[in-house]
Design brief:
The complex is a heterodimer of chains A (about 290) and B (about 200). With about 290 residues, chain A is α+β, with helices and mostly antiparallel strands. Chain A is built from eight helices and nine strands. By secondary structure, chain B is α/β, with parallel strands linked by helices. The chains are: A alpha+beta (about 290), B alpha/beta (about 200).
Chain lengths: ~290, ~200
């Protein structure tokens, strides 16, 4: 299967706008679950407003949140897929720029030193484009994640040491949730990266924070930590928007990688309640949009 | 827990009448403030032609569309999606915003800290919490972008919105030392030991 860059450009454009407007069904279901179990009156009201916003966005064909975020594109390449890699990256970038100019979206991206905004949502190294591979035949998937800054500004890495054990990981996650308070727009998906190198650990945390609700860590030890940490952080009472309540996190997601005998790294990255993402799957049958 | 409908500019007495857990609906004018415009105003000696005395200001940078100027869109900007950003980044600007520009109410999400709480007490102001991430709903409360200043900082310009039925907003910090964020944070930190013990951390 040969991938046409023009189709990639169109999909990159469409994905940014779709992701900003329609919340994935797993996140909607997550809201319903939290609302059913919430016991705090203020928190019930806050969750109700968030749920109402999801339908207002769909009815008025508007963005869920004004924060268009840092656009991130994750490309998963199956087998028997042919394309020009450099051209694929350029096509994604063009699509991202076009979405911003043509919709128009607020460009939330500036040069980190001059703070100049090019009004394209692009700049040096942005959008980040991550390339991965799968065994699926004749299939290429582009996932788009607009990562809002309220949650992204609350990201942490701790290079703990082996003598601190798994307790260092658990304590760190609880303390990050406390420090984040309402700043991350809870209820959040708390992404935890465990192991790897420092950069891999942070990347794992981001992958965990942007994984669909209901998915589990493929590593059984990681999956066990997901359940116990989810339960623990929801006893803290931070609540939606940090205004108190039971619904602090939809879930804690964990991703793990092997690490060095001398290392015990842990990273936390959070996704806000507007846990936006969208996908486009390229197959011989055409392009199919989903979540 | 009273509900207040406020049409800014408001007086110091009106600001001081607000108590934590009251609710507020704003009518009329609402200014949009942000990182870049407050850096410009308070660190770089830039000035604004807006009279913000007694007014409410929201932590925001909207999505807007350029349109031909008309009575509906006098600035040539139509609102596309207007929402609220995290207030905590702009903590150090609360005091000059109130003292130098006379703002009385800050609308934001996620809360502000002790210096802002002290400024609300000393100068007579309050923090009104909006539900972050609900910009589609918030946009339905915006009637128009009435004016814009410092527009070279776009989208972080200084915006002047005309709003209708903007709320209900929750009074989360008041001029009497009350802060929902402080009380939730201290309760949550008191539960830390229990949460860690559930996780088997001794």
């Amino acid at each position: 299967m040969r991938i046409d860059p023009a189709q990639v450009e169109e999909a990159a454009r469409e994905l940014y706008i779709r992701a900003l407007k329609i919340l994935p069904p797993d996140v909607k279901a997550g809201f319903d679950r939290l609302a059913r179990h919430e016991t705090d009156a203020t928190a019930k009201g806050v969750l109700g407003t968030m749920i109402r916003n999801i339908s207002v966005a769909e009815q008025t064909d508007n963005l869920l949140c004004q924060d268009t975020g840092i656009p991130i594109y994750n490309v998963t390449i199956g087998r028997g897929v042919e394309f020009d890699g450099a051209e694929l990256e350029r096509a994604i970038r063009r699509g991202c720029e076009r979405a911003t100019r043509e919709y128009p979206l607020r460009s939330s991206v500036v040069h980190p030193i001059t703070r100049k905004n090019e009004h394209t949502s692009c700049g040096p190294g942005v959008p980040p484009i991550h390339i991965g591979f799968s065994d699926e035949p004749e299939r290429l998937v582009i996932e788009m994640v607009p990562k809002g800054s309220g949650s992204e500004n609350n990201s942490w890495l701790r290079m703990a040491v082996p003598a601190e054990g798994v307790n260092a990981i658990k304590t760190f996650v609880v303390d990050c949730v406390l420090d984040a308070g309402g700043k991350t727009c809870p209820p959040t998906i708390v992404g935890v990266g465990i192991g790897g190198t420092s950069d891999l650990c942070v990347a794992l945390a981001k992958r965990a924070a942007t994984r669909p609700l209901g998915s589990a860590c493929p590593d059984p030890e990681g999956a066990a930590l997901e359940s116990s940490l989810t339960e623990a952080v929801n006893t803290l009472g931070v609540g939606p928007q940090g205004l108190g309540g039971d619904s602090t996190a939809f879930a804690v997601h964990v991703e793990v990688a092997a690490t060095h005998i001398t290392m015990n790294p842990v990273a936390v990255n959070m996704q806000c309640h507007s846990a936006r993402r969208a996908t486009a799957a390229f197959t011989p049958g055409g392009v199919e949009y989903g979540f | 827990m009273a509900h207040h409908v406020l049409v800014p500019p408001i007086t110091e007495a009106q600001a001081r009448a607000l108590r934590v857990e009251d609710t507020v609906t704003l009518e009329g004018i609402l200014f949009g403030i942000r990182d870049a415009n407050q850096i410009a105003l308070f660190d770089r000696n830039r000035t604004t032609r807006f009279d913000m005395r007694g007014h409410a200001a929201i932590h925001t940078a909207p999505n807007v569309r350029k349109v031909p100027p008309s009575p509906e869109h006098p600035t040539g900007y139509a609102p596309v999606c207007v929402g609220t950003t995290t207030s905590a980044r702009m903590e150090r600007f609360t005091e000059p915003l109130m003292e130098q520009l006379g703002v009385r109410l800050i609308v934001g999400k996620g809360g502000l800290g002790e210096p802002s709480l002290a400024a609300f007490g000393r100068l007579g102001g309050a923090y009104l919490a909006i539900i972050g991430g609900t910009a589609a709903l918030e946009t339905t409360w915006i009637e128009a972008i009435e004016d814009v200043d410092l527009d070279d900082l776009n989208p972080e310009s200084l915006w002047k919105f005309r709003v209708r039925g903007f709320g209900p907003l929750l009074v989360a910090m008041d001029s009497h030392g009350g802060s929902l964020y402080r009380s939730v944070d201290s309760k949550a930190r008191a539960r830390r030991a229990n949460a860690l013990s559930r996780l088997g951390v001794k």
